[in-house]
Amino acid sequence: MGIWRYDGVARRAGREDESRSTVGVDMGELRGTHVPVLLERCLELLAPALGRGGRTVHVDATLGLAGHAEAVLQAHPDTVLVGLDRDTEALAHARVRLARFADRIHLEHAVYDELPEVLDRLGYSTVDGVLFDLGVSSLQLDAPDRGFAYAQDAPLDMRMDQTRGVTAEEVVNTYAHPDLARVLRVYGEEKFAGRIASAIIRERERGRITSSARLAELIRDSIPAPARRTGGHPAKRTFQALRIEVNRELAALEAALPAALDRLSVGGRLVVLSYHSLEDRLTKQALADRVRSTGPIDLPVELPGSEPTFRLLSRGAELPGEGEVEANPRAASVRLRAAERIDPQARRQGRTDRERYRRRVKGMHQPGTGTATGSASDPGRGPGETTDEEGEGT
Ligand SMILES: C[S@@+](CC[C@H](N)C(=O)[O-])C[C@H]1O[C@@H](n2cnc3c(N)ncnc32)[C@H](O)[C@@H]1O
């Protein structure tokens, strides 16, 4: 998630945004300072994969306003970008912003679970970097007419892709009580899901609920007064839940993560920025499936094909620093996870080398067996690297 501050001047990182002046498209409400979340950390994690010489391919699965994508293209002059977004408005803005990189970008209107088809069409069998910056963009949240924000009155739409799918208005006015309550409880972690669902059902018997302000008011009135005073705006969780339901966000992510991991080349890296626990849990699970062996645990050797195919680059979920949250309050809930595809054969060889080295060092300390005089540097490990044995936990 990035943030645009509307200060009437088009700048990014304190300088004029060149892309605006190069193309005759009205960037209207996007004038402001866009701060992509954990930008430096994302660049740092992607650099070894994208900057390894020759042409590399990076997928930004959630292009949004192209803050991350622009920085990647700037940092890696030989990298080709495949940028996906299901929101045509976001794509139009991204196209303007990235105009100066036109000869090495492919911007695609697609849901990210369509990534394999997009890559096949473009002729890329593998890619080197993938970034998911999940959730809504500031453009969507701040747009007065999209219905994502409980603080603004707008038609209850909430579709990221306004060309297809059901709207929040349809969900609110047609779902039966148990379905509505489940959506609010599971996707919004809303304690008062049942009460809010009942209030919605009662209200829609009087007339169709069509506006975000009416819904926000209904939610506020349906929860107990003491609960209204804690945990932010009372409508926040319900709006998040409806957005997730309308956009089928978790189903798309569950399919997209394995598909993206499958397309990464050896040395290729995936970075995921999640903003709520359900997204982060799906990410953790998708990575856990690849970083552990699938062979029988009681076998002393790894069966071919059962070795881990990825290694984690983050220890658990990385959180934003205080400075990041201060500069960009919407970064407060971010959780970063990252992984790199490894070559199982090289890993096996590395293990054998390390084993041989350990035996040699042990031999040096046993009287009468010490023939080894070589250096004690570990052949299997580069400077500052952790190994899988040292455990990069989830
Ligand atoms: C948080 S924003 C990305 C911001 C971007 N990293 C930047 O720096 O400007 C998330 C974007 O992902 C898009 N998006 C969300 N779910 C998607 C999906 N399933 N498929 C494709 N795009 C999606 C949204 O429309 C939104 O524009």
Task: Write structural notes for this entry.
Among the domains are: 37-133 and 251-342, 3-Layer(aba) Sandwich (Rossmann fold), CATH 3.40.50; 162-246, DNA polymerase, domain 1. By secondary structure, it is α/β, with parallel strands linked by helices. The protein has 16 helices and eleven strands. Helix 8 (177-188) packs across helix 9 (193-206) and helix 8 (177-188) packs across helix 12 (236-246). It is globular, with a radius of gyration of 25 Å. The structure holds S-adenosylmethionine. S-adenosylmethionine binds at residues 1-2, 36, 62, 64-68, 84-87, 90, 111-112, 133, 135, 137, 160, 252. Residues 1-2, 36, 62, 64-68, 84-87, 90, 111-112, 133, 135, 137, 160, 252 line the site of S-adenosylmethionine.
**Going across the major beta sheet, what is the strand order?**
7-6-5-8-9-11-10
Q: Into which percent range does the helicity of residues fall?
A: 40-55%
Beta percentage is 5-15%
Query: What is the rounded distance between the termini?
Result: 23 Å
Report mean pLDDT, rounded to a whole number.
83
Instruction: Provide the structure class.
Output: alpha/beta
CATH architecture annotation of one domain:
3-Layer(aba) Sandwich
Shape: globular
pLDDT < 50 runs, ≥5 residues: 2-33, 369-394
Q: What is the name of the CATH topology of one domain?
A: Rossmann fold
Count of distinct strands: 11
Which radius of gyration do the C-alpha atoms yield? 25 Å
Hetero ligands: S-adenosylmethionine
Biggest sheet features: 7 strands, mixed
CATH level-four homologous superfamily name of one domain = Vaccinia Virus protein VP39
Helix segment tally: 16
